[in-house]
Structure formats: C-alpha cells, structure tokens
Model the fold of this input.
Amino acid sequence: MVKVTMIARVSDGLPLAEGLEHFRELNNGSDFEFYKQKAKLLFNKLSLGEPGPSRMSLRIEPYCFHYIMEDGVCYITLCDQSYPRKLAFHYLEDLQREFGKLDRSKIETASKPYAFIKFDVVIQRIRKLYLDTRTQRNLSKLNNDQYKVQQIITREFNEVIGSDENKNAEDASTNLMISNRALPRLSNDIESAIRDSKVMEKVALKWMPAIALVTVICILIWARVALWGVM
Done:
C-alpha cells in the first residue's frame, strides 16, 4: 500500500507538495514524520550530487521508497515492500502527468515549501486508484509486459544516503584529530613564552638597582661638569 507521497524540485530539494492524509496509516503520524525526513534527505542528495537514475527503488525496512524524476521534479512514494513495484511506478507516473499540467514558471520560481499544497487533492484521488491491487485496472497494469520494471535499480536507502553522512562524520573526526594535535603544540608555545617572560623579569629585578645607581652617578657627573663650565 502507498504510505507517503511527496513532490520536490530537484535543483534545490524544495518540497512542493505532499499527501496530507497518509499519516493516519503510520502510527498516528509518528512514523510519517520519520519517513518524511528520510524523503527530504533523498531530495537533498539528488539536489547536491550528480544526476542519478531517473527511476529508482530504495529499501528501508519494512518499506521501500520509489521515485521518478521528470522535468526537474522528483516524485517519491513510500510503500510496503510487498506492494508491487510496477504499480508504484505507474502511480508516480500518473502523478507526474497531472503535476506536469501546472504552470512551469511557478514551479521554477516557487520560494516557499509546499507552494502547491492544494495538489494534495489530486494525490489523494490518484492514490485511491492504487490502494486495491486486485482491481481489473491494476491487474491490467501488472500484466503489461511492456513496462520493464525489472530494469529499475533497487538499492538500500542507507547505502545511498549513508555514504554522505559517513563522509561528513569522517571529515569531522579528521578535523577534531588535527585540532587535538595542534593544541599541545600551541600549549607548549604559550608555556615557553611565559617562561621566557619570567626569566626576563628576574633579570630586570636583579640588575635594576645597579642600573639606577649608574644612572644617578652619570647625572651627578654631568651636572658637575656643566657647573664648572659656567664658573
């Protein structure tokens, strides 16, 4: 069964629309938010990376994400793993045909998330057609050998998304190690400077009386010579 449906712009991952009633079937909304965030991770992945397959399935137990990309828009749905993949992609293609009828310029210039939230009405209407896999309509789609769903790549969700997260974690760990290595050197430099300043202070205190005495003697000699010159 179709659980979650979301639509986003590929260029920046901006969510454009979603099915609002799906949360009722996912533990009163708690699971819905979890998988919704996973879908957003995928949108961000597609917006930042090199163009991937236009169609793909991503397993995330006990469900499976299916998505298609057409004309700069990504359509994604979360289904039970037992739900026929062929129907899932037919469902996404039906959504794409309807969403493609909207003003293209508005899709490209949308600046706020869910600018097409009213498209939920269309999502719900199409979704209802795919709830029962045994209807004559859906059985005909399943028996259509011209639709080669086997050619669509299937991978693990964490395999695709987790690679970037692991890389970021490794980068952070490397930066932390570099910082930790630099701290002892910096600490040693500071301690050395402090020790040097203390040595200079001791030297100054030791010789200050002698320097002051010599200075006074020089002033007295200069004053006496100057006085004799006047006489």
